[in-house]
Each structure stands twice: as structure tokens, then as C-alpha cells.
């Protein structure tokens, strides 16, 4: 399996999907707006489906990949994109919650406040599956990994 991997193509693919671009920033804002509205409406199906448009997966995959290959320059770029994306998401979330008439947490919000060991195991197995998908360039499977994680 390792002998058949085009390392240059993997590096290009990983670098391309997690870069800090205007598209990435706008997708972070839009996906956060959608998920906050879904959480405030207590819509489990919509919260899960919002994972599919989240752009934060790109910098997370980049950060993990470049940590493995020990490329600190590209790791810093991935970390910057991740920090900017999270910052934008927090800013949008704060604005939406501030103007929302709801003052009590919904059941969907409460369901995500007490993670368990099983949640950690889901994250670990999803990370392994996501890494395999990136290395083998089977992009269509990443959607399944995202849905299973959600």
C-alpha cells in the first residue's frame, strides 16, 4: 500500500485544501452561521449535515500531516488558518447568540457539553479513517467519515 502512494500529489492535495483564502474564510462564516441557527432550533439532522460544509477540516488535516512530516513552515500556515477559522466562527457564534431571543440552552446544545470516552474513540478512529482517505486520495469517502464523526 505504501509503495503505490504518490507523495508529491498527497502533499499538494493536503496543502491545497487547508489554505487561508477568501473562500476558506467565507465558508467558515457561512458554516458557523448555519450550525448556530441549527443548534438554536434544536435540529439534530441539520447540525450533523452542517459538518459537510465545515472548512476547518482542511487546516486540521494539514496540521496533522505536516506535524508527521515535520515541516514547521507549513505547520505554521495550517495553524494560522485554523486559528483564523475558529476566530471567525466564534465571532459569528457570539453575534448570533447575542441577538437571539433564546436564553436557555436547547437539548442539542446540552447534548454536546458532556463528551465521554466513546466520543474520544470516535474522534481517534475518524482521524485514522480521514488520514487513510487523504493518503489514498479517495475523496468521496471523506463525506462518510464526516457524517460518521458527527
Question: Gist?
Answer:
The chain has 150 residues and is mainly α. It has helices at residues 7-17, 22-41, 44-50, 57-68, 72-99, 107-111, 117-136, 140-149. It has one domain (2-149).
What's the helix and strand layout?
Elements lengths: L6 H11 L4 H20 L2 H7 L6 H12 L3 H28 L7 H5 L5 H20 L3 H10 L1
Helix pairs in contact: 1-4, 2-3, 2-5, 4-5, 7-8
Structural commentary:
- The chain has about 150 residues and is mostly helical.
- It is about 75% helix and about 0% strand.
- Helix 2 (about 20-40) runs antiparallel to helix 3.
- The model has no long low-confidence stretch (mean pLDDT about 75).
Key traits:
150 residues; globular; 8 helices; 75% helix; mainly alpha
Task: Work out the number of β strands.
Answer: 0
- Unreliable stretches: none
* Structural category: mainly alpha
Helix content: over 70%
Strand content: under 5%
**Molecular shape:** globular
Amino acid at each position: 500500500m505504501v509503495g503505490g502512494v504518490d507523495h508529491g500529489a498527497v502533499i499538494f492535495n493536503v496543502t491545497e485544501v487547508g489554505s487561508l483564502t477568501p473562500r476558506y474564510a467565507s465558508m467558515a462564516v457561512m458554516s458557523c452561521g448555519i450550525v448556530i441557527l441549527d443548534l438554536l432550533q434544536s435540529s439534530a439532522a441539520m447540525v450533523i449535515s452542517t459538518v459537510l460544509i465545515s472548512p476547518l477540516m482542511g487546516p486540521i488535516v494539514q496540521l496533522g500531516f505536516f506535524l508527521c512530516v515535520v515541516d514547521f513552515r507549513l505547520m505554521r500556515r495550517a495553524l494560522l488558518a485554523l486559528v483564523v477559522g475558529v476566530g471567525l466562527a466564534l465571532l459569528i457564534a457570539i453575534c448570533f447568540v447575542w441577538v437571539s431571543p433564546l436564553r436557555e440552552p436547547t437539548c442539542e446544545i446540552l447534548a454536546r457539553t458532556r463528551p465521554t470516552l466513546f466520543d474520544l474513540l470516535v474522534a481517534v478512529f475518524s482521524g485514522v479513517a480521514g488520514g487513510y482517505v487523504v493518503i489514498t486520495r479517495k475523496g468521496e469517502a471523506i463525506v462518510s467519515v464526516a457524517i460518521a464523526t458527527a
